[in-house]
TrEMBL record, chain A:
One example of a Gene Ontology biological process annotation: proteolysis
Domain Peptidase M14: from-to ranges: 122-415
A Pfam match: Propep_M14
The reaction(s) this protein catalyses: Release of a C-terminal amino acid, but little or no action with -Asp, -Glu, -Arg, -Lys or -Pro
Name used for this protein in its record: Carboxypeptidase A1
UniProt source species: Aramus guarauna (Limpkin)
Automatic annotation (TrEMBL), chain B:
Taxonomic classification: Eukaryota, Metazoa, Chordata, Craniata, Vertebrata
Organism of this sequence: Aramus guarauna
Keywords: Protease inhibitor, Repeat
Keyword Nucleotide-binding: no
Protein name in the entry: LXN protein
Matching SUPFAM superfamilies: Cystatin/monellin (SSF54403)
Length: 420, 174
């Protein structure tokens, strides 16, 4: 009986038809025949709309009654007049139902209750990562906020976490992970970085000094359509999921879609290619959103875009072999960052400009950001070097994130010390 | 640079045992990429030392497969999360060796291939002593970033080297 009532209530709640606000559940244990009779008579009083969860059975047996709000006063008065004692088992039935529904949704989606119970050493899907972001913000409202900078082709929100101690439009560091959806260790590392910033922002001297003067922006799932696709259909999907007329093939390489040497050698004009640059620069909403954000912010001083795999730290250019004016400085920073990274587990990284270290690539992210005047523009290629490649076992996530964080701190510290 | 022939590279490298990082052996090699890239590169090499003896492990794997009642069939090795079950580890390693041959035969100075995943493997039972596996693998080509499906038929026996008797590039999905 009770289960049916509860189910009916939940269905009603879901349908938005019935509410149990202010309803209470009272327990009465009749100790003599008079009390028992009084309680039994209550069942006849239809106008009170009493709902007996445990009907009267006999002396000493509990009687549980759900009492609608309007009937509470009259019933309690009646019981007191007859010297029948009662206890309140449930103060507000609706509150209990709300909480229960929330628990049910939570357990179905296997959501953690806090970022302390979140499992950083496993791969998560898009829902789980988006839920993590909300938890992090809720737990640290004075430090973290979530911005929506746009929508993907398939209308998924593009979220950026902002870590800030205050001020207005402070100089900032940008970090993005997951622009190429199959590079799963990057989104997983992004989640870890977010938590790390929250944990260390006061206790770690270097990070604290950075946040004293600068903001950190972190876009964890830069390509959510692609990411969802790697979970549902094709683990090896790299590009966005846009459909451009004239081709059966889907998607544009978001790291060839930027307005820096766009369409030149090092990108493909074939829509079916994994390095297809797209019909024009910034055709992809995922890219355009960042472009718009960077331009309107106007005060980003370091930009780091994170990929996998190959274990490399790269600076511009990718589209031309002409060295950037700041090549010497960027090379020095890279050397120091790589040394910091390797110090943790001995992971070896190579570093240099994109074109000399990996291959020619046109329309790339950090070529564009550098040309915008963001001097400290870097790209990482995280673990490994090909043994597992994109299918990096989950046990590598935390070590990878930890060592990479050391390199990121070097870059952030240098930026702080050389603000321009 | 060799006029009229191609590009020759002298390499000094260190081979590292995938299963035992401390076990290394020095190696020198010469790789000749032919002009036109139509022929696989020529490779000569010399190993300074001995490769580890894996006879015991080879025999255990060999006997296990030989005694299977139903042909071995498996998919997605590693899985999406990088997991390889212990039983599938030798199947994975065998694919890795065999894919080395396919990669060699299709390499140019502008390619960099890695085995990304075994999409599917099916054992083909033979009357003779050899084990035969029909693999569909995914090769990741670094420069183009393409994932290329490739079929290869692999023959192996503990006392004989790995052979790829047949291989063919497969069409990509849209």
């Amino acid at each position: 009986m009770r289960v049916l009532v509860l189910l009916a209530a939940l269905v009603a709640i879901a349908a938005g038809t019935e509410t149990f606000v202010g309803h209470q559940v009272l327990r009465i244990v009749p100790t003599n025949n008079e009390e028992l009779q009084t309680v039994q008579e209550l069942q006849e009083l239809e106008e009170l709309q009493l709902d007996f969860w445990l009907a009267p059975r006999g002396l000493g047996y509990p009687v549980d009654i759900r009492v609608p709000f309007p009937s509470l006063q009259p019933l309690k008065a009646h019981l007191e007049a007859n010297s029948i004692s009662y206890s309140i088992m449930i103060e507000d039935v609706q509150a209990l139902l709300d909480h229960e529904q929330m628990e049910m949704l939570r357990s179905r989606r296997q959501l953690p209750f806090s970022t302390n119970t979140f499992d950083y050493a496993t791969y998560h899907n898009l829902d789980e990562i988006y839920a993590f972001m909300d938890l992090l913000v809720a737990e640290n409202p004075n430090l973290v906020s979530k911005l929506e900078i746009g929508r993907s082709t398939e209308n998924r929100p593009l979220y950026v976490l902002k870590f800030s101690r205050g001020g207005t439009n402070r100089p900032a560091v940008w970090i993005d992970t997951g622009i190429h959806s199959r590079e799963w260790v990057t989104q997983a590392s992004g989640v870890w970085f977010a938590k790390k910033i929250v944990l260390d922002h006061e206790s770690d001297e270097g990070l604290a000094s950075v946040l004293d003067k600068m903001d950190i922006f972190l876009e964890i799932v830069t390509n959510p359509d692609g990411f969802a696709f790697t979970h549902s259909q094709n683990r090896m999907w790299r590009k966005t999921r846009s459909k451009h007329s004239g081709s059966l093939c889907v998607g544009v390489d978001p790291n060839r879609n930027w307005d820096a040497g766009f369409g030149g050698p090092g990108a493909s004009g074939n829509p079916c290619s994994d390095t297809y640059h797209g019909p024009y620069a910034n055709s992809e909403p995922e890219v355009k959103a960042i472009v718009d954000f960077v331009k309107s912010h106007g005060n980003i001083k370091a930009f780091v875009s994170i990929h996998s795999y190959s274990q490399l730290l790269l600076y511009p250019y990718g589209h031309t072999s002409t060295p950037v004016p700041d090549q010497k400085e960027l090379h020095q920073i890279s050397k120091k960052a790589v040394a910091a990274l390797s110090s943790l587990y001995g992971t070896s990284y190579k570093y240099g400009s994109i074109i000399t270290t990996i291959y020619q690539a046109s329309g790339g992210t950090i070529d564009w950001t550098y040309n915008q005047g963001i001097k400290y523009s870097f790209t990482f290629e995280l673990r490994d070097t090909g043994r597992y490649g994109f299918l990096l076992p989950a046990k590598h996530i935390v070590p990878t994130a930890k060592e990479t964080w050391l390199a990121l701190k070097v870059i952030m510290q240098h930026t702080l010390d050389h603000l321009y | 640079d060799i006029d009229g022939v191609g590009q020759k590279y002298h390499l000094e490298l260190v081979l590292e045992d995938v299963l035992d990082k401390d076990s290394t052996v020095n190696c020198t090699a010469e790789v000749l990429y032919h002009l036109g890239n139509n022929i696989p590169p020529d490779v000569q090499f010399a190993i300074a030392g001995e490769l580890k003896n894996a006879e015991a492990a080879d025999n255990i794997f060999y006997n296990r497969i030989k005694s299977l009642e139903k042909e071995l069939v498996a998919e997605n090795i590693p899985d999406s999360r990088g997991n390889v079950s212990p039983e599938m580890e030798p199947v994975h390693l065998l694919a890795w060796v065999a894919s080395g041959y396919v990669i060699w035969q299709n390499s140019t100075e502008n390619t960099k291939f890695q085995l990304a995943q075994i999409k599917r493997v099916k054992q083909v039972k033979r009357r003779d002593e050899y084990l035969e596996f029909d693999y569909t693998i995914l090769l990741h080509e670094m420069v183009s970033q393409e994932i290329i499906p490739w079929q290869m038929t692999v023959l192996w026996h503990p006392q004989h080297s790995v052979q790829v008797t047949q291989d063919s590039r497969q069409p990509k999905h849209a």
